[in-house]
Amino acid sequence: MTNAAAFTHHIRQRIARWWRARPHRAAEPPLVPVESIAGRALIIVIAIMTFLAALTAGAAQLVGAASSEWQSAVAREVTIQIRPVAGRAIDQEVARAAEIARATPGITGVKVYSRQESERLLEPWLGTGLNLDQLPVPRLIVLRLDDQKAADFGALRRSLVENVRGVTLDDHRVWIARLASMAQSIVILAIGIVALVITATALAVAFATRGAMAGNRDIVEVLHFVGASDGYIADEFQNHFLRLGLKGGVAGGLAAMIFFVLAGALASAWVATPGGDQIEALFGSFSLGVGGFIAMGLIIVLVALVTSIGSRITVMRTLRQLS
Predict the structure, then answer these.
(1) What are the distances in angstroms from CA 215 to CA 33, 272, 311?
(2) What are phi and psi of 172, to 5 degrees?
(3) Is residue 13 part of a domain?
(4) Residue 283 domain flag
């Protein structure tokens, strides 16, 4: 018998004796080392993946909530636009349109924009300090709708067209449809990104499990051949990687939660500033609320489960190959 064969035979005998004496021992050494460089690296990878998944889920919820607010705000208003027409006094046309709107059931408020107010609405596109006196700037009338009683837009549109020149009624249906479509697309994209991140995490765990089994191959083979059940060996690896998944998942999830808390605090501090107004217009108050944090908690649990189940599946497949 060669030295290598004798050494292997000696190791197997010692492991076999350990296995047979296992029920009489107060505590067992773990089959997989609790702390290792590979384990710490896997925790970092899982933390990064969880952070990205939670960040994506939180961003999707922010956009979805902001989109709902946009749709609700747009759906409560209707805009009348009156273009200047040669030979007609636009102020009279505006007054006539406002009178028709006030007489329409289902409309609770009518705001007539002056020429100066209408010109200020063009400043984001044309800039400030321009003389627009020679331009045919349209006038706007914003109608506030009654939440309890629906207005008849068809009748209102016909009455406006019959009595006012150069008038257009915009009920914002196109914008509402576009906002809803955009929000749905972002949510679907976020779900796809989260699914990809979870899949990448599962693949990383599978490779790490194979590496751990390769590093403990002699022990695994001996345990397998002396009668240890596949379930026992799989449980050892599953518990080990479940702990790693929980550590990495909690670290990444907490990092994402802290990020959104800090972002919300910064957004609140920037209120009434140009940048803060743009952020508020896009994301609302930039506050996730309880639902967002619950979603992040579910992602942490999902990552831990994927890590645990993925490890078990990998071990069972490897053990079947040994059989």
Answers:
(1) 10, 59, 15
(2) 65, 20
(3) no
(4) yes
